[in-house]
Predict the structure.
Amino acid sequence: MAPVAAGLGFFTVLGLVMWGIASLMAGEQAQTTTFTPDRLQIGSITRWAESIDTDGPVLFPGLGTTSGERTLVLDHNGTNVEKGWVVYYAYPADRGPECAVEQVEGTDDFVDCEGRTLDVSELSPPTNGEYPIVEDRKTIFIDLGERPGDTTP
């Protein structure tokens, strides 16, 4: 009888240890967040300025979200490739994110959810700190600012 009781005790302790390890691992997974970078590297300022001049602003859909809520539009104004970079949200300034815009291909124009044609300057300016950064006079980045659920100041 003693060997059977010892065997049952061993498997009980082993089961409790495994349960404890599984609980710790599940707790760590629940605390992790989706990795999103603080800034998005776009590339060469010269190449992107030429592209925007030819084909209009560039849309970057769903940055920093898993649901695609934050679509940004990158525009460039002027002839100096180091200056004149602007970021907008892809919805009209007088509407909310539920009124997404679609770009008229090859232009600075966008059509909103109500069928209105808007110039890129009529899109909503960012409110969460997204802005363009030119680094080393050759590379453009978009600072993604605060992300939903971000607790940092």
